[in-house]
Amino acid sequence: MLKLTWRNTLRHPLRSGLTIAGMALAVLAFCLLRTLVAAWYSGVAASSPVRLVTRNAISLVYSLPLAYQSKIAAVSGIINLAYGNWFGGIYIDEKNFFPTFALSLAKYLEIYPEFIIPPDQKIELLKDRRGCAAGRQLAGRYGWRLGDSIVMKGNIYPGEYRFILRAIYRGRDPTTDENRFFFHWDYLNETMKKNFPARADQVGWFLSQVATPELAAPVAGKIDALFKNSLAETLTETEAAFNLGFVAMTESLLLAIKVVSWLVIGVILILLANTMAMSARERTGEYAILRTMGYRPWHLAELILGESLVLAAMGGLMGVALTFPMVHFFKTRLGKYFRVFPLTNTTLALGLIIALAVGVLAAILPAWRASRVGVAQALRRLG
Amino acid sequence: MPIPLSYSYRNLLARRLTTLLTAGGMGLVVFVFAAALMLTEGLRQTLVATGSFDNAIVLRAGSETEVQSVLDRTQAGIISSQPEVAQGPDGPLVASEAIVLINLPKRSTGSPTNVMIRGVQPASFLLRREVKLAQGRWFRPGSNELVAGNLVARRFAGAGLGETLRFAMRTWRLVGIMDAGNTGFSSEIWGDVEQLLQAFRRSGFSDVIMRLKNPAAFPELQVRLEADPRLPVQVRREVEFYEAQSKRLADFIKVLGMVLTSIFGLGAVLGAMVTMYAQVGARIGEIGTLRALGFPRRDILLAFLVEAALLGLAGWAIGLIPASLLNFYTLSTLNWSSFAEITFRFRLTPGIILQSLAFGVGMGLLGGLLPSLKAARLPLLEALRAQ
């Protein structure tokens, strides 16, 4: 039986090859789409349950006074407090987008152990007021080396800012964003004091670290209660909820991508079903001969199913293999939209499982037909 | 005489299941292709329609969006008194506006997203020809009243007629719904600029919008304002400004859509190839007969290519019909440029219909080329013997 299945698969090498290639492409597309969706959620996946983000309740665009710092720090349960602003500077050209932050670096790096900076670079970074740090990927993209001077044009904070690259960090986890750029909040604030005094001493968000995850909810409530009915009311949420908020804002695009990733399965199903239907029809005569030799209808169904599964498995494996170079390509091409492109084993496994499921589904109709065909009728067609 | 067209399409009809499956596969690809283009086009059209060609927008130099821009009252005053500004029934058609973003929860999911609130002056209504009052009344100047765009009113909790919103330590009443057609203003909430500035403790406006007496005078105005040492500003045509706002999101959809459709497309081409090879394989005898009847190789090639193209055409039809139904579907997402929610429709244009037609037939032809060549190259005697 196995031998017959294998021989059947190889009978039309061209047809099988084309089908496998088509399957491989579709599995590839499916894996890519899944990875894309995962990339969307990467910020959520990378967040820690002991980190809380406090921002202006109206919306993230509004800032909070720096004076809140001491009040928030006094809330029991908070063991570390940092703050930062979204800088949104332009490096040479608008096309070169990467996230830029002005942060209270010393504290921020304590709260973010995911950003690993060699100790000597860290000292240099903290010592130099104009110092900045970049992720490994980002530095690689623009060929920056330690000590390089980087000039950025602010669009939210007008002016020209000159930084010196003092540290290159690498991520501790695969989901850690290695594409960020950050520098001293003080540098930004001093520039603001000089040019726009009204906008100085304003903080985009406070980031607090609580001792244990269970404290997150009560501490968040306490912080918000402090500033209730003030000019700048706050909204405190866990880092995951904060990041999820961003995802939710673009959820309809996400939905579209998910729909497309299921459509692709439709495409492969059709492709494989077509190949199997054609092969089975051509072999109607043979099936009849097999039947007269004593094979039962379910033997025929097994033959067809086996062939379909072989094709599907080979296509699935090829598709999975192709995913690796494609993910690399996406990373470099769409790097400005997605900083991380986490290809997971679950995605790959799912791609394979779906390929096999498609293999089974595609075989059902031809197998059913083949097993129902009347022996005499089929033999007559042969003659 | 060439082989009649009916030979090709009858052949497709003779193997209905295979034809349908192959065309169905191509149809799915055409669907994704058309949908990606329609989405990009819809986004672009919405933002382009938001701007008027004879309006100019003045922003602080270096800001890409209205939210980032700040102009103080002196600067706004200088900008408003330029000679190019057109006159309306109640004075010059120029408005200093303020943009604020607030977080509102969606009615459907409760998840919050950014909504743009525009503080406007009386001339703002005249500057935006598309904006009309649909329900209720306009807000009274000097009051905590707001008017919401119809898309905002429907989608966000608290933004419907008669409801209230609480932000900036005040309670705001929604007294009207405006309909701004297919423009970005349908995704905004409008209120009195002075009230909004006070509530947010801001002293400066965001930008100045003006109608030009003569649209051709724009370059002159632009050069003069941008050269004025008192004004750190940039001047744009409103249409160009809004088109630039759509660019980042539209580019993303386009790149993603095209990468995907090329992968999908390749898959469908392979599918068509499988089908066409099978067609040729099953009809070797027939091809021999045709050759024996005197049809040259070129005609055989053509007949099979026509068959493949028809397959692609069927795929196009199967894909485009559901895609055109998307035309009634609206999508809303955060615009990465303005950081505010924008709602737009899938847009089917004749260009997209033609593009997807070319795409579908192209897929068919590409898949049919090698099998057709094989058919045309069959040696006559061998083909006849196969019968």
From TrEMBL, chain A:
The chain crosses the membrane at residues 253-273, 303-327, 347-368. Keywords: Cell membrane, Membrane, Transmembrane, Transmembrane helix. InterPro entries: ABC-4/HrtB_transporter, ABC3_permease_C. One of its GO terms (cellular component) is plasma membrane. It is found in: Cell membrane. Residues 259-372 form the ABC3 transporter permease C-terminal domain. Its main location: membrane. It comes from the Bacteria. PANTHER family: ABC TRANSPORTER PERMEASE, ABC TRANSPORTER, MEMBRANE PROTEIN. This is FtsX-like permease family protein.
From TrEMBL, chain B:
The chain crosses the membrane at residues 20-39, 255-280, 300-331, 352-370. It is a multi-pass membrane protein. The keyword Cytoplasm does not apply. It is found in: Cell membrane. Residues 19-227 form the MacB-like periplasmic core domain. Coiled coil: none annotated. Keywords: Cell membrane, Membrane, Transmembrane, Transmembrane helix. InterPro entries: ABC3_permease_C, MacB_PCD, Macrolide_Exporter_MacB. GO terms for cellular component: plasma membrane. PANTHER family: ABC TRANSPORTER PERMEASE, MEMBRANE COMPONENT OF TRANSPORTER-RELATED. This is ABC transporter permease. It comes from Desulfobacca acetoxidans.
